[in-house]
Write a structure and sequence with these properties.
The complex is a heterodimer of chains A (307) and B (247). Chain A has 307 residues and is an alpha/beta fold. Chain A has 2 domains: 3-218, Rossmann fold (3-Layer(aba) Sandwich); 228-301, 2-Layer Sandwich (Alpha-Beta Plaits), CATH 3.30.70. Chain A is 32% helix and 28% strand. In chain A, the strands form 3 sheets. Chain A has a 6-stranded mixed sheet, with helices on both faces. A 4-stranded antiparallel sheet of chain A has the order 2-1-4-5, covered by helices on one side. Chain A has a 4-stranded antiparallel sheet with strand order 12-13-11-14, covered by helices on one side. In chain A, strand 7 (154-157), helix 6 and strand 8 (185-190) form a beta-alpha-beta unit. Chain A starts with a strand and ends in a 6-residue tail after the last helix. Chain B has 247 residues and is an alpha/beta fold. Chain B is built from 9 helices and 10 strands. Chain B has helices at 44-51, 73-79, 95-105, 110-124, 139-150, 169-184, 196-199, 219-225, 231-238; strands spanning 4-15, 18-29, 33-38, 59-64, 67-68, 80-84, 157-161, 188-192, 204-209, 212-217. Chain B has a 6-stranded mixed sheet, sandwiched between helices. A 4-stranded antiparallel sheet of chain B has the order 2-1-4-5, with helices on one face. The two termini of chain B are 37 Å apart. Classes of the chains: A alpha/beta (307), B alpha/beta (247). The interface between A and B is large, with 38 and 38 residues.
């Protein structure tokens, strides 16, 4: 498989703030690559470098054979960028924005309409409405249409689903799937760990560094030790009790359960008696499949006891 | 109805021809963690603004901590706490100054503020950050402090509007433990979130869709009723009966 994007030793500082520290990764062609991490991880800085809007202090990034600094003019022709903040012209209509972007890139809406049809159809009824008067979901679809209208090889989407409800997020990820079907490589960032499984490859980021990267399945497999899924009538009491158990390494709330790791696995049998003694009602525990979020938590805490 | 801290009956809010809240009726019980879910544009923010005494309903009734949203909005504001992801603390004030400001706004005495500040800093293990600017604190610390400031005046209920957006998974979980703790101490927690796993942490969850409440129950009962393995699945099934995009 061909490599679409490769980054080698990228560092970037803003004054005393080291936003990116020696970032290296590769993205295969026509893959959906998810950059996952909280605010301040460095996702936006990295994406701005990929979009040729920032120059790294050290290292380099090559996208479709173009260097992000030296070949920025050529690179801009083959990439589409959708920043985290809505940045279309609020006082131009839906149709005017789309035509403007097509013209800037020396093409026409008609020529590439097939590519955006599925997305644009949702906002077509509002074609004469100023972009500033659209709902959040519609703004997002218009921005995505504008980023795609010149048929780029790569689109860079900075947190398109942040603050978006769970249903709209699902819809958006389905759209990304159809974009990928057209052979377009997708770089997308998100703070939502559950979106990791929607990606072909993921890069977990925290504090300007890469914690780990690879296929979601591989990341899950790298989880060290056995993960246990514990439940009880009262999750809060359960967590407190688990943390006091001498063999517990970590205990995190996960939905209506707790995800737990132990230093001595064979001692888990003793837990039932321990919970009964503490009057924890409805306790049960079983081994569980780790999620990407479990691995992220493990990498963050370095296996330390949760506090 | 003494065990209900929020009582809402047939609450309607219209903006021109648009009905943002369409005959909402629900109770929030004293001390519970109440999850207020809904798709973007479903009307959550409008309802929260009314319950916080910032907006008046078009019709219907709503009482918060025993006060009427029409006539006693000032008393409501004094008796609630509020925190959102968008705004919480002043970045260019120190930890101590922020707490002083919050306490002052809620009319606490200087002596009371001083005493409670020490108590709070000790409890959070924050003594060393007393004179640190908020902007210099790591996210996790900021969040802890923002929540503590929101309940510093010991309100009977605290509104949390997407309090965990964009934070790392450890901070997010730490934050929920603060919520559990507050709830265990008797404070009612009214919370909105887009993280569906957080909905499972709530005692009861309501789901709004197109201005109405379409479901309200414990997470377990909702999962059972909609034959779903998670609240996320329930949400996907019922949060959008019609395309809200067309609004």
């Amino acid at each position: 498989m061909c490599i679409a994007v490769s980054a080698c030793g990228i560092s970037k500082s803003f004054g005393p703030l080291r936003a990116l520290k020696e970032i290296s990764f590769e993205i295969p062609e026509a893959a959906v690559a998810g950059f996952i991490g909280p605010d301040g991880a460095g996702k936006t800085t990295l994406f701005r470098i990929a979009a040729t809007l920032l120059i790294p202090d050290e290292g380099n990034m090559t996208l479709f054979g173009y260097d992000s600094v030296k070949d920025f003019r050529n690179l801009r022709k083959v990439t589409g960028y959708m920043p985290g903040r809505f940045s279309l012209y609020q006082d131009l209509t839906v149709r005017e924005n789309l035509e403007f972007y097509a013209t800037v890139f020396g093409t026409t809406v008609l020529k590439n309409y097939d590519l955006i049809k599925d997305i644009y159809e949702h906002i077509e009824p509002f074609r004469d409405r100023p972009a500033g008067k659209l709902s959040g979901g519609m703004k997002q679809k218009l921005a995505l249409s504008c980023a795609l209208i010149h048929r780029p090889s790569l689109i860079i989407l900075d947190e398109p689903t942040t603050g978006v409800d769970a249903v709209s997020r699902r819809e958006f990820w389905e759209l990304l799937g159809s974009i990928k079907e057209n052979g377009i490589t997708v770089m997308v960032s998100t703070p939502y760990m559950d979106e990791a499984t929607r990606c072909d490859t993921i890069v977990l980021m925290q504090d300007g560094r890469i914690l780990e990267s690879g296929k979601p399945g591989t990341i899950k497999e790298r989880f060290e030790g056995t993960l246990w899924h514990a439940t009880a009538e009262d999750t809060y009491l359960l967590l407190n009790a688990l943390r006091k158990w001498k063999y517990t390494l970590t205990a995190y709330p996960f939905g209506d359960s707790a995800h737990v790791t132990f230093s001595e696995e064979r001692e888990t049998a003793g837990l039932i008696g321990y919970m009964t003694a503490l009057n924890i009602k409805g306790f049960s525990i079983k081994p569980a499949e780790p999620t990407v979020e479990d691995r992220f938590l493990q990498l963050m805490s370095g296996g330390k006891i949760y506090e | 109805m003494n065990d209900s801290i929020i009582i809402v009956r047939d609450l309607v809010k219209r903006f021109g021809s648009f009905t943002a809240n369409d005959r909402l009726s629900f109770d929030v019980k004293r001390g519970e963690i109440f999850g207020f879910l809904g798709a973007n544009g479903a009307g959550k923010t409008t309802a929260i603004r009314i319950l916080c005494g910032l907006s008046r309903p078009t019709s219907g009734d709503a009482f918060v901590a025993g006060f009427d949203v029409y006539r006693q909005s000032e008393q409501i504001k004094r008796n609630i706490g509020y925190m959102s992801q968008k705004f919480s603390l002043y970045e260019d004030l120190t930890v101590r100054e922020n707490i002083l400001l919050y306490g002052g706004i809620y009319g606490m005495s200087r002596g009371d503020i001083r005493y409670r500040t020490e108590e709070l800093l000790r409890k959070l293990d924050f003594i060393r950050f007393r004179d640190t600017l908020i902007g210099r604190l790591p996210t996790g610390y900021k969040q802890k402090l923002a929540f503590s400031a929101a309940i510093f005046h010991k309100p009977s209920i605290v509104f949390l509007d997407e309090p965990t957006g964009g934070v790392d998974p450890v901070t997010r979980r730490n934050f929920w433990e603060l919520i559990y703790e507050a709830s265990a101490s008797g404070i009612t927690v009214f919370v909105t979130t887009h993280y569906m796993d957080e909905a499972e942490y709530c005692d009861r969850v309501s789901v709004m869709s197109a201005g109405r409440i379409v479901a309200l129950d414990t997470p377990a009962a909702l999962r059972e009723k909609w034959n779903a393995s998670s609240v996320d699945e329930v949400f996907v099934k019922i949060a959008r009966p019609a395309k809200t995009d067309a609004v």
